[in-house]
Specification:
The chain has one domain: Fumarate reductase/succinate dehydrogenase, transmembrane subunit (3 helical TM bundles of succinate and fumarate reductases, Up-down Bundle), CATH 1.20.1300.10. Helix content is 79%, strand content 0%. By secondary structure, it is mostly helical. The chain is built from four helices and no strands.
């Protein structure tokens, strides 16, 4: 009986692929809708911007956008680390630093988006 050693990013397989594609579709759709909205009715000035950002629908969809971006980046970077960083200490360090940075970016974006109305 032969043993197979699992290496690289293949361990996540289809689930990671689907999640990355779904996040990409959501982000592309969000950018298109936002661009069309800005073309139709430009937001000029801080007061108008603040009022526009106070809408719950925009804040929820923007939060989902940033969460999708973080998920998308996490899957991609983790796959790169698994495939190209062979020393386990280096891979672990890169993974931890990336996870911490992405968590900080997500926390910051949520703080900005939900702190606007205050």
């Amino acid at each position: 009986m032969s043993r197979f050693r699992q290496t690289g990013s293949a361990h996540g397989g289809l689930g990671e692929w689907v999640l990355q594609r779904l996040s990409a579709i959501y982000m592309a759709g969000f950018v298109v809708v936002l661009s069309l909205r800005w073309i139709a009715a430009p937001v000029c000035g801080y007061g108008m911007w603040k009022q526009w950002m106070a809408g719950i629908a925009l804040r929820v969809s923007a939060t989902l956008f940033f969460a999708s971006a973080v998920i998308h980046v996490w899957i991609g970077m983790r796959s790169v680390f698994m495939d190209y960083l062979h020393p386990s200490r280096l891979r672990l360090t890169a993974t931890i630093v990336t996870a911490m940075a992405l968590a900080a970016i997500l926390a910051w974006s949520i703080g900005v988006l939900w702190g606007v109305a205050g």
